[in-house]
Amino acid sequence: MTLDIFCDIIDNYGDIGVVYRLSKELSKKGYNVRIFSNKFSEIEKIIKNFSAKKNFQKLNNIEFINLDEPLQVSYTANIIIESFGCNIPDEYIDKLDEKTKLIINLEYLSAESWVEDFHLKESFSPKPFIKKYFYMPSFTLNSGGIILDNDYLKKVNSIKKDKEYIFNSFYKNLGLKYNSEIFYINIFTYNWN
């Protein structure tokens, strides 16, 4: 079973991070996964051994194809994931045939109630023989839920076992003393130069 995921990296690592984690899990389930993406220089920053200089490469059983270069594709996949409202290139759409059965429009995680109205609803498809549906991750039973990969779950369980030690080390590096009686909030931000 072949699966192509399209990702348009806009301004940070979140888009490709989600797509890459999803791809690794799908690859472990036996899918032949290709990621079509732009901004390979951004991918290089988050994936070990990835090279922004190569327009095509295979890492961890996932093929990466650079959308910043002219697209040359010999086949289209059985299933396509269109992540976060990106556009699938016309060159790819023109090659679609009846072996492609499904396009999933994967949207951003949202806690808003309107997500349930769109989750698993049919969308406009570029070809009449392909079904296209919205997949809306969220926090309710009538949504797509939260996409978690096995590596993340293993790390969470590891942290739970050694929580006190990890927190003490983390805060010590910041010059602070950790106190389990205090409620801490960590805020993540990007370094904009």
Features of this protein?
193 residues; alpha/beta; 7-stranded mixed sheet
What does this protein look like?
With 193 residues, this protein is of the alpha/beta class. The protein has 6 helices and 7 strands, in the order βαβαβββαβαβαα. The protein has helices spanning 14-28, 40-46, 90-95, 115-118, 150-161, 163-173; strands at 2-7, 32-37, 56-59, 62-66, 79-83, 102-106, 131-135. It has a 7-stranded mixed beta sheet, with helices on one face. Strand 3 and strand 4 form a beta hairpin.
Short description:
The chain has 193 residues and is an alpha/beta fold. It has 6 helices and 7 strands, in the order βαβαβββαβαβαα.
Task: Please specify the SSE layout and strand pairing.
Layout: E1 2-7, H1 14-28, E2 32-37, H2 40-46, E3 56-59, E4 62-66, E5 79-83, H3 90-95, E6 102-106, H4 115-118, E7 131-135, H5 150-161, H6 163-173
Parallel strand pairs: 1-2, 1-5, 2-4, 5-6, 6-7
Antiparallel strand pairs: 3-4
* C-alpha-based Rg, rounded: 19 Å
**Oligomeric composition of the shown chains:** single chain
Count up the helices: 6
Main beta-sheet annotation: 7 strands, mixed
Which range best describes the helical content: under 10%, 10-25%, 25-40%, 40-55%, 55-70% or over 70%? Answer: 25-40%
User: How many strand segments?
Assistant: 7
| Broad structural category | alpha/beta
In terms of DSSP E residues, the strand content is 15-25%
What is the mean predicted local confidence, pLDDT?
89
Overall spatial form: globular
Distance between the termini: 42 Å
Give the neighbour order of strands across the main sheet. 3-4-2-1-5-6-7
Flag low-confidence runs. Answer: none
Helix and strand pattern: EHEHEEEHEHEHH
